[in-house]
């Protein structure tokens, strides 16, 4: 398997504050990772570094075999798929859902005068179908529900066949049905050997799609545990990460955690 992401002794300091400290982490092309941790633990900062959004203060970040700091990040970004709330904010409300996906082929937000190849349009329509969005293809992005919006942003992120897909809280703010629907789709996507490496940040163990293989637990910018899901996502590691005792259960690949009173 090919290494797609490596953090080597990464620190990230801003305004005199240590946000990440001594992070070592490695992702292979067939792995699907979830990053869990309390508010402010540094999860989004890790995604920011992994998507070329910033540089580590010390240590090294290697993305798709390229060292951050000595590579053209604009070229590297075309090989990554990223969906998060910040990316959704950049999409014009008036954009159709088909164009939200299609414009990823040109790395732009908002269609202007680009002429798209028939092959790109076919690819967009195939992806819209895969993410349950065909019926909404001509709807305006601004009219979508939160759940539809999240799916549209993931569809956009996979449009260019990225070598690594990174998702920041894809299930946040979704109702139960929309969350379950999205989890099923993510689970199906994760199961395909054709899919890229995946890294997903979430706040809740209930939001881990079955089929995800690895977990990284972060607290105060430090890795508490990282590795294969079954060995890493334990009540003991959750306690060390969140500072509370949990009853943790897993059924049919779905995790649930309830604080022990
Ligand atoms: N530029 C900055 N200057 C100072 N502090 C920062 C800066 N960027 C991030 N932080 C702080 O770093 C910490 C980690 O932020 P980050 O957004 O990575 O956490 P998170 O784990 O994603 O949190 P949440 O779960 O609440 O989204 C936070 O306390 C945040 O306030």
Description:
- Residues 5-245 form the ABC transporter domain.
- One of its GO terms (cellular component) is membrane.
- InterPro entries: AAA+_ATPase, ABC_transporter-like_ATP-bd, ABC_transpr_CbiO/EcfA_su, P-loop_NTPase.
- This is ABC transporter ATP-binding protein.
- Pfam families: ABC_tran.
- There is one protein chain.
- With 261 residues, the chain is of the alpha/beta class.
- The protein has a domain at 83-161.
- It is built from nine helices and twelve strands.
- Strands 6-7-8-3-9-10 form a six-stranded mixed beta sheet, with helices on both faces.
- Helix 5 packs across helix 6.
- The site of adenosine-5'-triphosphate has 12 residues, from strand 2 and helix 1.
Order of helices and strands: EEEHEEHEHHHHEHEEEHHEE
- Mean residue pLDDT: 93
Q: How many β-strand stretches?
A: 12
How widely separated are the two ends? 43 Å
Key features of this structure:
single chain; 261 residues; alpha/beta; six-stranded mixed beta sheet; four-stranded antiparallel beta sheet; binds adenosine-5'-triphosphate
Short description:
The protein has helices at 43-50, 73-77, 85-89, 97-102, 118-130, 146-158, 176-191, 229-232, 235-242, and strands spanning 3-14, 17-28, 32-36, 58-63, 66-67, 80-83, 164-168, 197-202, 214-219, 222-228, 246-251, 254-259. The protein has 261 residues and is of the alpha/beta class. The radius of gyration is 18 Å and the shape is globular.
């Amino acid at each position: 398997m090919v290494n797609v992401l490596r953090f080597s002794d990464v620190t990230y300091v801003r305004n005199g504050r240590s946000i990440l400290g001594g992070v070592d982490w490695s992702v292979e092309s067939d792995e699907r990772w979830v990053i869990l941790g309390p508010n402010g633990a540094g999860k989004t900062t890790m995604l920011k570094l992994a998507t070329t959004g910033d540089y580590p203060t010390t240590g090294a970040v290697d993305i798709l075999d390229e060292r951050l700091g000595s590579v053209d990040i604009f070229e590297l970004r075309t090989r990554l798929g990223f969906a998060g709330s910040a990316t959704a904010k950049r999409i014009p409300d008036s954009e159709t859902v088909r164009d939200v996906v299609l414009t990823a082929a040109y790395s732009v937000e908002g269609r202007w005068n680009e002429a798209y190849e028939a092959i790109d349009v076919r690819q967009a329509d195939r992806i819209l179908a895969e993410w349950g969005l065909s019926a909404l293809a001509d709807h305006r992005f601004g009219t979508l529900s939160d759940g539809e919006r999240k799916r549209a942003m993931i569809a956009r992120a996979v449009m260019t066949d990225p070598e690594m897909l990174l998702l920041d809280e894809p299930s946040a703010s979704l109702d139960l049905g929309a969350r379950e629907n999205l989890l099923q789709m993510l689970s199906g996507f994760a199961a395909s050997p054709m899919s890229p490496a995946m890294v997903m940040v979430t706040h809740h163990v209930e939001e881990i799609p079955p089929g995800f293989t690895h977990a990284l637990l972060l607290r105060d910018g430090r890795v508490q545990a990282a590795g294969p899901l079954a060995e890493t996502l334990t009540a003991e590691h959750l306690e060390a990460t969140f500072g509370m005792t949990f009853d943790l259960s897993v059924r049919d690949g779905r995790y649930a955690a309830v604080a022990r009173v």
